[in-house]
Design brief:
The structure holds 2 protein chains of 2 kinds. Helix content of chain A is 32%, strand content 22%. Chain A is an alpha/beta fold. Chain A has one domain (4-398): Peroxisomal Thiolase, Chain A, domain 1, CATH 3.40.47. The longest helix of chain A has 15 residues, at 164-178. The radius of gyration of chain A is 20 Å and the shape is globular. Chain A starts with a strand and ends with a strand. Chain B contains 10 helices and 9 strands. In chain B, strands 1, 2, 3, 4, 5, 6, 7, 8 and 9 form a 9-stranded mixed β-sheet that branches. In chain B, helix 1 (20-27) packs across helix 10 (233-240) and helix 3 crosses helix 6 (119-128). The two termini of chain B are 21 Å apart. The model of chain B has no long low-confidence stretch (mean pLDDT 96). The chains are: A alpha/beta, B alpha+beta. Chains A and B meet through helix 4, helix 5, strand 6, helix 7 and helix 8 of A and helix 4, helix 5, helix 6, strand 4 and helix 7 of B.
């Protein structure tokens, strides 16, 4: 594919609001996970919470969209000059030429969970203030961002579980390439809810400690919430922009609904497709941000796929020990991690991981360190055996 | 800016619309429409374990998709698949919300992993062995047009890989049904290719400021407006007529995706 420029990006996660907090944590190898309890959740688990969402207001006229997920989107787009950057792009190309492609796995389902606690005792009806369309429906966060920023281009919610927001990049890239749009907001938003907390608990996939990807004693995930918004724009190679989306690769496992293919067959196909799409050999990738959820089987399968594609030399790490597994926002937040890593010349570490599993073969990085990076690949895999890999690059690598 | 494709195969499961062969006669006006509840067939390609584990939304989507692939004479595993649905796994969503509002909050693990919007895409891969890319998208009432656009854009990016669009919706149980009413279950599937050797009607699509058009027949218009995936009916009618024509499909903001059909 033709490289697409990254014109702006912003994030909110357990590490804080705005990319500065994420960058600092990456440089220091800090975790944003907490043992604090979410809502009425009584599970013994660690989570990543975006600060201040309970007090986050939406702008006047958009109150009908009010739910945790749209609050997270609002929290993110206020930071890093993101809303202003979108306005400028919208003026430049026209609002009908700017698309919105966001990943989410659960959108505002928390709103439905809360409404189900307030059913009418007589007829079981949900409370009248429950707004299904603007909160629970999968499309609600796309609708919110599009309405909030007065955009009129093509828009879609991508909901492929934990690969959702990575696939949003791939979808938007195709629209840009086909000439339907000139720019797009991509990434994703997923926020804490009881469905995912109790759901992953039912699958016995929640760790009682902060998650430890690649650790010999890893025993499950920590769930986090995040909003990761990235502005993609058609560009030309002589642009000044520093960071580019170079390639996207997608595949399916065709194996199991909640377990990865044991040999990482689908993951391998996605990474190979991303490299082909970027026109790069495996040896040209300087850093891989792993999906690395911290469950025994996920990390083992991904490790096999990494070794098959890259051998054992490419530096790899999972940053889920910092943010938690942000599910439908993971691909977006980890794309931003790659951009920050490229920008700062930094290989991120893996806070929480103590002793690397000796049966895994990838060159796993525990501590952040300086390095000259020109390219980075990010993996995102999800339930249903959905896989997506993205390749990012810098026009002139930071030293 | 138009996007073109050949329609190689069609699958359809809807209220009073059992399969494409029977439904095309109705949509072309050669046979009367008899309203009736949707009957969801059990997709034979699904392994026995998955038959037990999957719910009706998955079966609905797979039934339509497999019919379309068969009509196209295509190996289902080679198709890029785009799953489009407004609400996805309606029954699982309700069951989980109900359990979470209860005392013990016990969710079945199968129920949980079946509740993802891409559950049908996951079971499709398991049933057909497809490792090709698949998407699972939603755009509320514009989900069909958004899915068709997604499929056409994917085809434009890689003309060598035919694409399968499956748009589907099932009603929520109460009380959610009152907040988001979906009249009945409906799935439509289209196998789309860049053309070449395969025969089939050609379509060309573009986004248009004009609003979408209604169905002439009152009962079919009720189906169209009652189920997001049935917003596809104007296109299905144009395909059934086997004559040059146009269809106008509901998109976002009161706009439409216009589709020109050439048999």
């Amino acid at each position: 594919m033709q490289p697409i420029r990254i014109s702006a990006f912003t994030a909110a996660s357990g590490l804080g609001r705005g990319v500065a907090s994420l960058r600092t944590a990456l440089e220091r190898g800090e975790s944003g996970l907490t043992s604090e309890r979410f809502e009425t959740c009584d599970l013994d688990t660690w989570i990543g919470i975006i600060p201040g969402l309970d007090e986050q207001a939406l702008p006047a006229g958009l109150e009908g969209f009010d739910c945790r997920n749209n609050r997270a989107a609002e929290a993110a787009l206020l930071e890093d000059g993101f809303a202003r950057a979108v306005e400028a792009v919208s003026r430049r190309h026209g609002p009908q030429r700017v698309g919105v492609f966001l990943g989410t796995s659960t959108a505002g389902i928390l709103q439905a969970e809360l409404a189900y606690r307030r059913r009418d005792p007589a007829d079981g009806a949900l409370p009248a203030d429950f707004d299904y369309r603007r909160t629970q429906n999968t499309f609600s966060v796309v609708d919110y961002v599009r309405t909030r920023l007065s955009l009129e281009g093509p828009a879609v919610a991508i909901s492929t579980a934990c690969s959702s927001s990575a696939k949003a990049f791939a979808s938007a890239a195709r629209y840009i390439e086909a000439g339907l749009i000139d720019a797009a907001i991509v990434g994703g938003v997923d926020t804490l809810c009881l469905t995912t907390l109790y759901g992953f608990n039912s699958l016995q996939l929640l760790s009682a400690q902060p998650c430890r990807p690649y650790d010999a004693g890893r025993d499950g995930i920590s769930i986090g919430e995040a909003a990761a918004l990235v502005l993609l724009e058609r560009g030309s190679r002589d642009d000044e922009a520093s960071t580019w989306l170079l390639g996207c690769g997608e595949s399916c496992d065709a194996y199991h609904m909640s377990a990865p293919h044991p040999e990482g067959a689908g993951a391998r196909l996605a990474m190979q497709a991303a490299l082909r799409s970027a026109g790069l050999e495996a040896g040209a990738i300087d850093y891989v941000n792993l999906h690395g959820t911290g469950t025994p089987s996920n990390d083992a399968a991904e490790d096999k796929a990494i070794e098959a594609v890259f051998g054992r030399e490419v530096p790899c790490s999972s940053t889920k020990g910092m943010t938690g597994h942000t599910l439908g926002a993971a691909g977006g937040i980890e794309a931003i991690v790659c951009m920050l890593a490229l920008d700062a010349g930094l290989v991120p570490g893996s806070p929480g991981t103590r002793e690397i599993d000796a049966t895994l073969n990838a060159r796993y990085e525990l501590e952040p360190r300086r390095a000259k990076l020109a390219t980075a690949l990010s993996n995102s895999f999800g339930f249903g055996g959905t896989n997506c890999s993205l390749v990012f690059g810098r026009s002139s690598p930071a030293a | 800016m138009t996007l073109a494709a050949t329609v190689e195969g069609i699958g359809l499961v809807g209220p009073g619309l059992a399969g494409w062969s029977a439904s095309r006669e109705i949509l072309a006006g050669r046979a009367p429409y008899a309203p009736g509840a949707t009957v969801i067939p059990m997709p034979e390609a699904l392994p026995a374990t998955e038959r037990r584990r999957s719910g009706k939304t998955v079966r609905l989507a797979l039934a339509a998709g497999l019919d379309a692939a068969r009509m196209a004479g295509r190996d289902a595993s080679a198709l890029a698949a785009i799953f489009a649905s407004s609400g996805g796994e309606s029954e699982n969503c309700h069951a989980i919300c109900e359990a979470l509002a209860g005392e013990d909050r016990l969710i079945s693990p199968t129920r949980f992993h079946n509740s993802v919007h891409n559950a049908a895409a996951g079971y499709w891969g398991i049933a057909t062995g497809a490792m090709a890319p698949s998407d699972a998208i939603g755009a509320f009432d514009a989900s069909f047009a958004a899915g068709l656009l997604e499929a056409l854009v994917r085809l434009a990016a890689d003309p060598s890989q035919a694409a399968l669009l499956i748009a589907y919706d099932t009603p929520y149980p109460e009380p959610l049904n009152a907040s988001r009413t979906i009249a009945d279950s409906f799935a439509v599937a289209l196998v789309l290719s860049a053309g070449g050797a395969k025969a089939g009607p050609r379509i060309a699509a573009w986004l248009d400021e004009a609003p979408s058009a209604a169905m002439d027949e009152t009962a079919l218009e009720g189906v169209r407006t009652g189920i997001p995936a049935a917003r596809s009916l104007p296109l299905l009618r144009a395909l059934a007529l086997e004559a040059p024509g146009e269809a106008s499909l509901e998109y976002l903001d009161g706009k439409s995706l216009r589709v020109r059909v050439r048999p």
